[in-house]
Amino acid sequence: SSYTTVICGWAYHSKNRRQQREAGERAQNLLDVMLKEEEEKGLDQQDSSTSMMKPSVLTYSAVAVAWAVQAKTMANSSVSKDRGEYAMNRAEEVLDRMLELYEAGDVDMVREMSCDTM
To answer: Which of 31, 67, 75, 114 has the least C-beta neighbours within 10 A?
Structure first.
């Protein structure tokens, strides 16, 4: 999604540590917004006749990849080792959530997962 492109762009094109840190903070804020939007969209679509819509696996994989990129960027800086570790943990959380959906047998998700090129 365009969100991921923006986030990866921030992470990769930051020239120095200060910019990397700022990019990291912006990426984290954007990711939180992105997941919240997806989850709210899912809640809005809930009604008695359909099961609750969930954020798509593509969103989760995009977020996980972006967190991982962020973690890698920060790992190179002694100042932000903790932030890098935090980013890596967030990536793992997101992947765990994807796995839960997959194991719950979300058919749409499984179909999307096979289309996922990341």
So the answer is: 114
- Could you give the dihedral angle defined by the CA atoms of residues 98, 89, 8 and 108, in that order, rounded to the nearest 10 degrees? 0
* Segments in the chain forming alpha helices (H): 2-13, 17-44, 57-75, 81-103, 107-115
Structural domain count, the chain: 1
Query: What is the C-alpha to C-alpha distance for residues 19 and 115, in angstroms, rounded to an integer?
Result: 34
Residue pair 54/110 in contact (Cβ under 8 Å)? The answer is no
| Residues spanned by the domain of 77 | 2-115
**For 53-98, what is each residue's pLDDT tens digit?**
455 656 666 677 777 776 766 666 665 667 667 777 777 777 777 6
> Which one-letter amino acid corresponds to residue 38?
E
Query: Cα separation of 24 and 45, whole Å?
Result: 32
